[in-house]
Amino acid sequence: MTMYISATFRELTRKRVFLVTLILTIIFLVLFAFGVRELAGTDGQNQDSPAERLLNSMVLTVLGIFFAQFLAAFFVLFTTMGTVTGEQENGLLLAVAARPIPRWKLYLAKWLGHAVWIAVYSTVLFVSVVWTVHGLAGLPVLAEDMLRGWALFVWMPLLLLTLTMLGSVYLPMLGNGICAALLYGFALFSGLVEGVSAYGGINPAVGKYVLLTGLILPTDSVYRRSLYELLGGADWAGLATSDMGPFSIPSVPSNAFLLYTAGYAIVLLLLGCRAFSRKDL
User: Given this model, what pLDDT does residue 19 score?
Assistant: First the structure.
């Protein structure tokens, strides 16, 4: 298995999109740190009360994690949308599949290889954003809250990876990327709509739409639960997320829904293994 993880890393580093993603990530983190420093008033001129500084730091965290999930999602999309079909088109898949191992094991090995590096990238991104706000804006961070938030933040792109790899068995590389990006966009859009509609009470039709998109692709729901846990759960999260327009979190996914996401990933992996085993190479 270590061989496949190393091979996946070499494959990623050969892609130009990997280098572009790293450069854009560094630019984002630098600009985010600069913006947090300016908005937090770390030059000593900030006369806000401790409560106001706490609220401001939590709002900055919400915005930082929101855009960080964008980077994590598009890292998944651009690096894995051609995992099966792309390798089939250039002949690499036939050479790998010729080895005397079951195809379903090869599929799981590919998933695990990408999952490891996606988790590493998401971890670096998450920790960088949180500790930037902690160091420059004074966000109080508890280890258990950060650990729960980190686990769910990493789980979000892994769900997207599972869907994208399944799509790569059936669809051409570009078609799979467009399909996965649209589904991710629908899930994100539903969360923004729910945040806006919360001011006047959630319309039943909007609630059904949000539930349906969450069941099809639960990435946005997992992101919102991650943010909720990071900001202290029921004790503090409502302070920062109750009045932020589209960034508000009027409802928090339950533990039962998190169990659904685990079953969702398992089912998609099983479907991917089955489809890949039957695929004509």
Answer: 83
Cβ atoms < 10 Å from Cβ of 266:
11
* Pairwise CA distance, residues 182 & 10, whole Å: 28
- Please check whether residue 248 is in contact with residue 195, taking contact to mean a CB–CB distance below 8 angstroms: yes
- Per-residue pLDDT averaged across 107-123, rounded? 90
- How far apart CA 210 and CA 195 sit, in angstroms, is 11
Residue 229 has pLDDT above 50, yes or no: yes
Locate the domains of the chain by residue range: 2-278
Sign of CA dihedral 151, 26, 116, 102: positive
238-266, pLDDT tens digit by residue? 555 556 667 777 778 889 999 999 999 99
Tell me which residue has tokens 């539930």: 211
Give tens-digit pLDDT for 35-65.
888 877 654 455 567 767 777 888 888 889 9
Q: How far apart are CA 183 and CA 178, in angstroms?
A: 9
Buried b (16+ CB within 10 A) or exposed e, 154-182: bbbbbbbbbbbbbbbbebbbeebbebbbe
